[in-house]
Amino acid sequence: MASPITNYQCPACTGPLHFSESTGRLECDYCGSSFTVEEVEALFAEKNEKARISAEAEQAETSSRDESWDMGMEENGWGADAEGMKAYTCPSCGAELICDETTAATSCPYCGNPTILPGQFAGGKKPDLIIPFKLDKAAAIAALKKHYRKKPLLPRAFAAANHIQEIQGIYVPFWLFDATVDANVHFKATISHEHTTAKEIITETDHFNVFREGSVSMSRVPVDGSSKMPDAHMDAIEPFDYSGLVPFSLGYLPGFLADKYDVTMEECAKRADLRCQNTAVEEMRKTVVGYQTCTVCQKSFKMHRGEVKYALLPVWMLHTKWNGKDFLFAMNGQTGKLIGDLPISWGKFCGLVGGIFLAAFILLCMFGF
Amino acid sequence: MKKRIAAFWLLLCILVFSLTVPAIAASDDSEAELDYVTDIAGILTDEELDTLESEAASISAAYACSTYILVLDNYRLYTDSDSTFNFCMETYEKYNLGWGADKDGILLMLSKANRDYYLIIHGDGAGYAFTEGGRDQMQDRFLTYFGRDDYYGGFRKYLSECRSCLQAAAEGKPIDPFTKKDMEKLVFFCLAPSLLLAAVVGYLLYRPMRTAVKQSSAGSYIVPGSTELRQRADQFSHRTVRRRPRQSDSEGSSGRSYDSSGSYSGSGGKF
User: Fold this and answer.
1) Fewer CB within 10 Å, N or C, chain A?
2) Complex ipTM, two decimals?
3) Record: contact B218-A278, CB cut-off 8 A
4) What is the dotted CATH code of the domain comprising B28-178+262-270?
């Protein structure tokens, strides 16, 4: 039976191939050969198809076995721990790889070979598009160091002693939604005038009911389809440059982790709808001009939902530990935007803010009191 | 020669007399054209008036600082100015009030109809005795009487406070407590701006430490030129008017005033 794993090997020396961010080609570390994604895809098309069929056959076999026989897995095996996990054999060194059932690309922890699990995309929607990695690991590390700079509240020990525990280039599954929103928005707006008489200061405020009806179209609003990825991190590294989107190919995956979506398009659509609606309100608000205050008091929407694409987008995830706490950073693998919450030295915070307060208070007391 | 000597002595005597008479005349407040206590509004009985007058005279003589009370129906009937400070200053000048050459004195003016009061101080000696803190404390104390229309009680309190201030000044320790007004000033002009500045700086320092934030909108993904406004309506609903009393130009936010020469200072308000 064919292995459900594809290991892209160099046609020249059989060494492992990995995708290079700088050249956009698959390169061999051993003989230095490089190939385009299309060339490698053509070479390994047959192997991938076999891997997919093998995966489906294995799945079918497992299903029929489960229906026919009670294997007593819960008593003898991994029980609940085995749920959501899959085991593969590395075609390079023979080691057993235990992966999350959504993992579509990984590396063998024993021999380091980049490994593709094309069968993972079987039975689910295959990604339509992918943005290949443009920035490498070194860029991610440099961006993290830059992220530490000019942060007076960052504990000195964190920046000095910080060692990145883990750094992974991950193709994160995203749903990209097209939508047009028809919005009806009612605002309350005011204009105030002040004039003075000999005895009084009179403030006259004119109140207005403002109504706007219009529509806004949005293209490829991204919502991450991986429950493992924190939404805040994935949102904060936006936007991606969609001019870099290309049709999906397994050839882009070697050397990186890749996940299959585990949050359905229907679930993600709720967040996309909300973001589109908020954007429509913001656009209508921009047309309310000439007022001093403006607040939304009523809004209604009609969504015209368009095409939804499934795409893998490149993200570098960096993980570090400090004082027993985990700190997770994410960098857009295309644009280099890096985000992540940093630890705060509350002693420094109190010192700086308290110092500024005291200095300002003393100066004001000296000159104004 | 004898005639010349006699003429010289005569000239010297005239010179000395001409110099000493004004000095003698200015050594008290006998030139003032108002009593210490003047009640045009008629809110005090004769007996009360006499008591207050003798008390004020006693204080004035004891500390060489004239202490006046002026009660009017409505001060606006006597002046074109809207400012109580200007009116008190005019009155002080017009009636030649104050003790000695420096015209040291304190005048409490009360305008009954519009419930205005004003306390004006003139002269370096009075300025030394009646500090801003001392005046604020004095006002807080006598205003509680005026607030309940106990004018006689209020004036008695005013005079006793004047005596205390002058006595303290005579001992070289003028009363200058940290008053409620000082506290308000400290809070509004020093504490609040300092706190605000510290909060803004704190936020600016904190903000870049928290960059993993969920997006609530999708402005980056708007199709260029797709925003279409189909209907717009801006309808006037109603007007609201808010009126606040205006402080006169010569009064600061604390209600304190100073004239341009610096010889007068005062504070007042409503009771």
Assistant:
1) N
2) 0.75
3) yes
4) 3.10.310.50
